Structures are given as structure tokens and as C-alpha cells.
Request: fold
Amino acid sequence: MAVAWAVILEAARVVAVLVLVILAAYTYRSLFFALYRLFSPGRMDYTDLAGFHLPFVSVLVPMHNEEAVAEDILEALAQSDYPKDPERMEVIAVDDHSTDATGKILDDYARRYSWVKVLHRQGGKRGKAAALQAGTEAARGEVLVVFDADYVPGRSLLKFLVAPFADPEIGAVMGRVVPHNVGTSLLSRLLDLERAGGYQVVQQARHSLGLIPQYGGTAGGVRRAALDAVGGWDPRSLTEDTDLTLRLVIGGWKIAYVNRAECYEEVPETWEGRRLQIERWALGHTDCLHRHLKPLLRSAYLTPREKLDGVFLLGAYLTAPLIALGWAATAILFFGGQSYLPVWVPFFLASTCFNAIGNFASFFEIGSSALLDGAGRRVRLLPLNVANFVFSTVTVTGALAKYYASRARGRTLAWNKTDRHRNGNGSANGNGDAYSNGRGLNHIKARAAAAGMQRSMRARGMDS
Amino acid sequence: MRRRHITPHRALRHVVFRREALLYGAVLAILFDAALIWQGSRALHVHARVVEALLGFSGVSWEDGTELVLLPGLSVGLLSTSYADYQNYPLYPWLFVAGSLAFAIVASPRSPLPMRPLVWAAPFSLGVTLFYLKAVSPGVPYNPEDFSRIWYHGETYLWLLLPWIAAVALLALDAPLRIKAGWLGLLFLYSFLWSAVRLATALATFHYLGSLWMPFFYFTFGFLADFLYIVAFYSMAIDQSSRALAQQRQTWQ
Amino acid sequence: MGEPLVGYLLLLLLFLLFFSVSLFFAFREWRRPRDASPLPMDVDYIRIENYFGQSFRAKVREWLAEPQPNGVSAGELTNPKHRITPTGENLLLVRGGRIEAGGDTDEIVYSEGDLTIARGSVFRREIYCAGSLDTEAGAQLQSAASDGELALGENSDVARWIDANGKIVIRSGAVVRNRASSLTSIELERAVLVQSLYSPLISTAPCGTSQDGFGGGGDSWPRAHDGAAAADNGRPHYLEGPRCTRLAPGTWLVQGALELPAGTRVEENLIVTGTLTSGPDCGFLGHMKGARINLGPRNHLLGNLSAQDSVLIGEASRLERNITAGRDVRLASGTRVGRPDSPAVVSAAGEIVLEPGVAICGKASAGRWVRTI
Reply:
């Protein structure tokens, strides 16, 4: 018994030190990114090229039961200032096994606009990657820009997104995602902070440092030639964005991040919706870790710094079970009377409790993004992020347990759709007429205008 | 139409880096650490007196314990208190575990999803400790004086680190001195007092409710609570700095 | 209950009070939000290269159309005349002519006709000239918009932008600290500093006619040696030596530096991780990228050019598309960038140096300065 206990203690010590080192590395990385972004002018961002490099763009919008939001994105694309001539732009909306009025809405837009094409998929593998594959096969563009159905691109977004493709080494481009449904719940406000830290600081720092910004699978573009060179979309992947990011950089391409290319998204407003979202991300991301870690480390195209960044990227979701393991190890050491090592280990464990899980931003990154965005009071919510952290840790740990169990049984994983919240609860309205959605894009614009007016009044001291 | 200055778009801007600001922060951090090591014993003496007063207020008797040397020249006299003896109150541990479990069962379904793990933290921690007490050893490895020793170690390391956290997070910014100095001062004051209150509460809890609560206290109200207030103060300072910097032309490029 | 227990309970209360301080401000912001709106969203934003000039003109016209408190309407201009704008600023209305030297004007100026600003004058607000605007040497301006032509005198200093519908001439030693934009053309003399320029034609003195050097396309390739014939392994001859891989059909990645001899013709995209150097009379059909790029004289590029560091373009080279550099760009004499029907950008995070006789159709934008020598 004593021997067993001694072995357990020793193992706990090793685990605790390992966790300490890994978390310290992630903490240092977060700090470095935040400071670099805050104080450095950054690398060339291709913004000047917007409007001057106009390749043929195919905009792919995969949709599965998206009647609540389909019109919004198509209207937004119709208002885009990208030239609509047939050799410059086409929109391919993929109706993927929809059972609602999505197909009907898309057909109507295809009749109205010659540059809109619709693909109806009723057979074949389901899921976003398969839908994108089908859309890609139909696309003629040199650059493929992908939007999720619930995103609202600004009028000039396409020009900003495609500008970096003037650089022949760029395989994919990612824009900044800004939540537009902030304020609907505490979760949406916390996620707004998280997105700000993740994009304004982390992605931009990675771009400026010549590391690996992540292509996010939406509000981003990919070079058709690069996509073909690395084998196209992978329908097996739950996170085709992370998967593609890794395959591109391993294959010698670069990813650019364009902070100026802002696209507006709807973040989950309920914790259940959030759970589904991060579960999928955790599963897909870890799956990518298993498939791409060795090729990443062996790639002849990447510098040691890029490889290190890639490892951090791939291991991001493992920090959750690692933190849980660290707490367990610390507890064992505590009960084992090892009183001093626990001083350091929980120190770092505690510091991560407002910190990065997966790709989410640490509190320091969020604070830095608040400074850069000129966002004031919202940053006061940071302490409540402990709820987000605990929730994410538990969810990711559970998801990874499920993942490894599935692997052991040789099963594949299903894709969970994130709930939509516009036009009520995301389902068809009462009379089934999906065309009566008058709240979407115009509502977002009105909200933006109202927020701007409120900000202006506050600045002039006119609000009570 | 006219603005006094045009700040670049948020996507394209960065804060002008002033080497002297970072230097100033580093110098301040070094000075503070030096002051803490040089005069820290006095501060820790005050800390211990506050803990004594709170213990006295709550009816917990204490004795002078050993002298803990944290660093050369930095030491504190520990306080020796006692645990509630579970041999005299054999039902206590079971009551606490059952009570917290019952609370979790009732509260969990009514709690928002992210709060549920936290609701279960207490019964889980108490349950694990109870298992240890029954299956491994009748007592936890530390007496209250040992707990204080661990506490002072942790807090001292944190206080030595805090000026550096502030140097990097706050002092490098071009924010007005009143914001930086103000929040830093408040942070240290709060940290000091809160540390004393936590330690006193922990020792008093062990005295009345027994050693079952020691791991729970350590893990929940130790460094986690420290970082909670660090993040809170940081967020307040950043909020004010953000508004101040937005008005300053020389901040942005 | 014993007193000590009461004391303990009060201690617990104190504990909770201190604990709640950590969460108080977050809680308050949650329950009584003061900042719960999305970040400012510019869904309708489109980039307008001469935005400052356009928006300023629109604003002034709006002010001119508004009735004044004393009932004087926009049509009744006397020289000079003042108006108060809705934002409380002074608007000085003049018919045109010459504003005498030594003045220090703190008003927004609107001129109905051609305007000359005398030597050494200081204007701390914007100027809108419905005719042509001419500043003499040493003038200091905030910003200026002209519906006609605009000439900036020697050693003038513009704190922000200038914009004209007609031609802009920026004379020696003048500085424009933000954007200079014209719907017609911009001519730059020596030792001029501008942060960015936008015009269908930007040229440095001496410049010929506006269309010089922009004719033709790939059919006017310089006489080339046979640089494009592929070797047996599919690699072009100019890639025989270096370590390279084909990233995609039409795109080569070269590890290390690459030197292309005179007259090489490159038909594919080329990415060089080191320095790309080319001799005279090379031709490039695709897009190019290098860590640094040094192009020889009379090179011709049909694609985009990108460099992580600096770009040096040799004399009389023609680049049909965009140039981006992580550091500096230098365009030697006689270089042409872009085409009148297809404007291009020269963009550098550092400096853009323009030698005499350079012409750009489109935009030149530098992190520091566009400088003429």
C-alpha cells in the first residue's frame, strides 16, 4: 500500500510539473501575443490592395435548414461592391439536405440574380465539408470565399478578403468575425469579449509574427489552386477549417489574416448552444491533432517557429483535460503532504482559469483587445469569464473523453448544428412563409445605427 | 465634422510603445520587491495581527507558532490554532458531505449550466477529503499552522509577482498616472486585507468545523480567489485606461 | 448560539463581502449594462480613395445651403463674409483672388473662384476652393480640396490631406502628411514627402505625356533568351539549380535565393524564400514573391509582386499589377506601374522612393512616406 502510494505521489509530481511547464508555455505565448499586438505596428496587411486586386471569386454558402437567415446573407452579398460581372463573381448557395423552405428561398434569388447559382443536395454525405466539396466542384472562381449562412458580410468585405491573394504564396485568408447579437444574454457578451481577444489580438499577432493564423472556415477565402493541391475539403473532418489550415501550411502555403475585413456573426445565446459548438470544435480540433501533428513537424516548408506555433494550435483543446489532470495531481500532492510544489502548480492552474481553452483568449488578450477596440465597460465582465472557463473545461474534457472512446470503437462523429436565433427560435414562422423575414439584415443595420447613436450620445454626455 | 485628431481604424491601430513607460514599470516592480523583502516582515507582522484580531473576534483561541522564514530578511510568526476534533463530533464530516450534496442536488437543476460544475465543487471536494480521512489517514497531512505556512508562501510569491504583472499589463500603457497608481494601490491594499480575511476565515472554519474543509479552502479560496481579484482590478483599470487613451492623440498609430 | 459562533458568522459575512468585491463590478455591468452593444459595425462601408475630400466638400455645401440666423442666404456672397456652421465653427467665404502673406487663419475657408495663398501663410482649418488653388512657397495648411487644379508651393506643409478634381502639382520640398488624391493626375517634383497618393496618374518630374510607357501588354515583351523552355523534369531552366517544389500547377516555390540571368522569361508564379534578383530585360507572366526582390532594368511583369522585405525595381521596368513590400520600395527612373485602364497599387510598410520619371496609375501608399528624389 505504501509503495503504491509512493508511486502515485511520484506520478502526481511528474504530472504536476508537466502541466506547470505546458501551461506556463501557453501563458507566456498569450502574454507575448497580447503585448506584440498592442505595441507593434504589425506586418503588411494587404489592406491597401482592396479594390485593386479583383480575382474571379466564387462565394460558397452551404445551408442546412437556414430559412431563418438565408435571405440576409444573400441580400448582403447583393449589396456588396464587388463587381458582379460573370467573370468576376458568382455565389453558389448549397442547399444541403434541407427540409424547410431554404431551397425555395435560394431558387428565388437565383431567378433574381444571374450571379447566384443554387445546388440542391438530397443525396450523398451530409455536413459542411461535403457541401463545400460539391460547391467547389461547381465553382469557376480562382478564389473561393466561404460564408456560413448566418453571417452578414459588409459591402466591402469581399474586396478586403481577396486582396491578399495578390501574394502568390497565400493559400487562405481569414477575416475578423464580430458578433452582432451582443447584449441578448450574458453568454453573448462573454463570447463577444472572447472573439475580440481571439481575432483582434491573437490572429493579428500570429499574422504579424509570420506564424499560422487560423483559417476559420467562414468569413474567409481559399485559393482554388491551393485547395486542389492539398486534396480539397475533407468530408471526414468535423472542423474542416482547422484541417484545411494545417494541410495548407504543411503543403507550403501561407495563411493571411485581414483584421480590416470584418464580418458579422451570430454567437450562441444559450449555454446549450455553446456546449454543442465547443464540443464540435474540440472534437474536430483534436482529430486534426492526430492526423496532422507528425506531418506538421516533418514539413520542409515550415520554420521551427511556425512548427511550434502549429503545435500550440493543435494542442489547444488538450489544455482542458490537462488542467483537470493538473488539479487532480495537485490534490494528490496536497494530500501526500507535498506542500511546496502545490504552491506553484495551482498558481498557474489558477491563472489559466480566466484563460485560454482551445482558441479562446486569455484575460490579458481580451483586455488588450478592449484597448485597441476602444471598448470600455464591457471588459468589466472579465471576472465572470470564470463561468465560461469552468463550463468550457468540463465540456471539452467530456467531449474528448467521448472522442477517444469513439476512436477506440472505430466510430465516426456527427456534426451538431448551432442554433440560430434570428426570427425567433430559428424555426419557420407561424404561417410557414419564409419570405416574411423582415427582421434580418435591416434589423442588424438598424441595430448598428442605434448603437452608434448611443455611443455618440454617451461621448457627448447626453445619455442619462 | 472636424475631429481634434483622427485615430486609425481599430483594425489598423496600435499603441505607441514608450520604452520609458516599460522601464518605469520595471523600476517600480524592482523597487517594490526590494521594499517587500526589506520591510516585508513588518507588513507580514501587521497581516498576522489582523488575522489574530479576526480570530479573537470569532472566538478562536490561538498560540504563537514557529517563525517562518520566507526569504532572507523576510519572516513571519505563524499562529497555531486547532481543528475541531472529529472524534468528539463523529457526525460532522458526514453531515457536511451530505448537506453539500443535498444542496447541490437541489441547486444544480436550478442553476445556469455554467454554474453547475461550481455547485458540485463543494460536495466533490468534501467527499474526496472524507474518503481520505476514512481510508488513508484519520487526519489531513497539515495542521492549521502548516496551512498558514503554505498560505504565507503562496501569498508572498504572489505579492512579489504582482508588481511585474502590473508593469506589463498596465504600466507600459500611456494612461494617466492616477489610473495606474490608483488601481495598483487599491489592488495591493485589497490583496493584503483579503488575504488576512481569508486566512482568518480558514483557520476559524477549521477550528469550528474541522479539517474536512482544508482542501476545499485551499483550492477554492487560495490562488483561484487571488486571480479573481487580479482579473477584476485589471478589468477596471483597463476600462478606465481605454476611455482615457481613446482621447489621446499621441497614443495611437 | 454562543458568542464565538456569532463572531464566526460575522467573520463569514466579512469574508463574503470581500469576496463579492471581486465580482461586484462585473455583476453590475451584467445586470445594469452600460456597454452591451456590438462593436461599431460598418456594414455599409465602402472604400472611397478620396473620402476626406469628398466628405468635406459635401459638408461645406450642406453648410452653405443652410440659412444663417440673420437671414442671409448662400447666394449673397460678399468678399469676405463669415458664416457660423451648425458645429459652431467659423466659415470664411471669399470670391477668390489672393490671400496675402503672413496671415494666420483659424477659419474654414470657402472660395467661390480661383484662390492663391501667399507665401508663408498659415491655415489651421480646411480650405475648399471651387476653382483652382495655388499655394506659394512655405504655406502651411490643414487640408485643402479643390474643384479645379491644385498646386502646392515649395516647402509647403499640409497637416492632413489634399484633394482635387483636376491636376495636382506638388513642388519641391512640400510635405503632405496624409493623402493626396486627384481625379486627374498628380505630379511630384523632387524632395517631396507624401504619406499616400491616389490618382489615375501619379508621376515624378520629368514626366512625358500621360500615356508614355503604358502601351501594349504581353505582346511587347522584351527580346528574351529562351528562359522558358522546360527541362526534362518539367522544371524551367532557370530553376535547374535551386531547390524547388511545385506548390500547384503554375506555381513554383524556391527555397533560398534565386538569380535570373538577363532576358529570362518566367511564365509561372514564382515564390522565392530568399532574395529574388533578375537581370535586365526579364519578363514575368505570373505573380512573384520573394523575401527581397531586386529587379533589373527593363523588366516586365504582368502579375503582382510581393516581398516580405524590400523591393527594388530597375530602370524603365513595367509592372502591370500591384507591388507590396513589408519594408521599402524603390522605383528607378522610367518605371511604370499599372495601366490607365487597370490601376495598381504600390504599397510599402516602410518607404516608397520614386526616382525621376516614374509613373504610377493608381495608388502609392506607404507606412512612412512616399518620397521623391
Remarks:
- The longest helix of chain B spans residues 19-57.
- The helical segments of chain B are 19-57, 92-110, 116-135, 144-171, 177-209, 214-221, 223-246.
